[in-house]
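Weekly structure sync, notes
Attendees: PL (lead), two postdocs, one rotation student
Agenda item 3: pending single-chain targets
PL asked that the sequence for the first pending target be pasted directly into the notes so everyone works from the same version. It is reproduced below exactly as submitted, 300 residues in total.
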Amino acid sequence: MLRLIARRVVTARAGGCREGRVGFSSTASWRGRLQGRIALITGGASGLGKATAHEYIKEGAAVILADIDSRLGPQAAEELGPQAQFVPCDVTIEQAVADAVDFTVTCHGRLDIMYSSAGIVGQLDKSDISQLDLDQFDRVMNVNVRGTLAGIKHAARVMGPVGSGSIICTASISGLMGGLGTHPYAISKFSVVGIVKSAASELCRRGIRLNCISPFAIPTPLVVHQFSEIYKGLERERIIEIIDSLGVLKGAKCEEIDVAKAAVYLASDDAKYVTGHNLVVDGGFTTFKHLNLPMPAEVV
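Predicted structure, written out during the meeting:
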């Protein structure tokens, strides 16, 4: 049975936080794994960030969606319900990241979970490193690496005095093996894994856990757009079929929910002794590579 209760809900506004009395709560004793926790997700307006926000809320958290997209952001927050709110944030601007963190603390009193999910792919038409556009390289690194590092920095700033917190970053299988992405994207994701290893060695002494997730290819809006640039004119449904066919684990495909549930695990007390870890969600894709041996009958 559900009963209507008064609950403190804050909504992002230009002038600060606005409180309301809305929402339902179950009379049952069930508590989510993130019950009462406060999460900030960059890149939260769509894709993996939005999917993770949905799972966080299901597990009892309040979520702030920080995103550069001021059109999709409020729509996503509205869709996710009263436990979600949106703040505009360009992760390439450190002050914007700091402001999003400070807004969270001002409205909710603390920050328990920071998930740096904002990222871009960059141009896809050039794979020759001798022709690499360094301006485009800098653009990808600014979002994927500098933006991630800014999130870690400012989350640690407010989590440190409390002595607890979970920071999660989005890496990629492109940061585990060469040849799976463009040079700027792959290099940026190799860097994210390195940042996590380096910073976790310090943050563990403050009680802060820092991990990352390396997903397989998933038909998020970003990835579908990326593939549409390769397969020009192909229908969206066919592109999704191509992406879903790339895996090696029989009977399953990698979906947004898989990464979102991994992010729930890393944010929860189930992972209380996990830090500095790269959780690979790829169905075994990066665990092996077959030797192209000729068949015995083919050997003369």
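Discussion points:
- Residues 134-159 form the longest helix (26 residues).
- Confidence is low (pLDDT under 50) at residues 1-11, 19-28.
Action: rotation student to compare against the earlier draft before next sync.
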